[in-house]
Every structure is written in C-alpha cells, then in structure tokens.
C-alpha cells in the first residue's frame, strides 16, 4: 500500500503537500517564481439535491483542509 494512502491522504492532496515542500526548500529567487506557478485559479462547488453550493477557490479550500488535518493530529 502506498504511504500516502495509509496516511489518509488522497493522491491529489499528497501531490500538493509534496509540491509545497519542494517549493519551500528552494532558494529565495527560484522559490518566489515556483510559488507564483503554484497559484491555483480553479474553483469548485458541491452540489446537493440538485442545487449548487457555495463556489470556493480550490487552493484556499485545500489549504484550509490541510490546516484542519494538521490541527486534528
């Protein structure tokens, strides 16, 4: 079994965490350029009973979920 699965992560969340760790390990100049490339403009909304919920930015929702996950441990 993959380590990210046993840690309770989805593959996409695992990739986001790994990418963030790599970006943070870079020196100042390349780190800033990599962080700009890592910005997400994707949005999503959950649908329940045929009605669209609140539209949220994917990047912010991912950060909030990771923060909530790290606080619960």
UniProtKB/TrEMBL annotation:
SUPFAM superfamilies assigned to the protein according to its UniProt record, in alphabetical order: Epsilon subunit of mitochondrial F1F0-ATP synthase (SSF48690)
Domain of life: Eukaryota
A GO molecular-function descriptor: proton-transporting ATP synthase activity, rotational mechanism
One Gene Ontology term from the biological process aspect of the record: proton motive force-driven mitochondrial ATP synthesis
Any GO CC annotation of this UniProt entry: proton-transporting ATP synthase complex
PANTHER family in the record: ATP SYNTHASE EPSILON CHAIN, MITOCHONDRIAL, ATP SYNTHASE SUBUNIT EPSILON, MITOCHONDRIAL
Family: Belongs to the eukaryotic ATPase epsilon family.
The protein, known as: Mitochondrial ATP synthase epsilon chain domain-containing protein
The organism of origin for this protein: Aspergillus avenaceus
Lineage summary: Eukaryota, Fungi, Dikarya, Ascomycota, Pezizomycotina
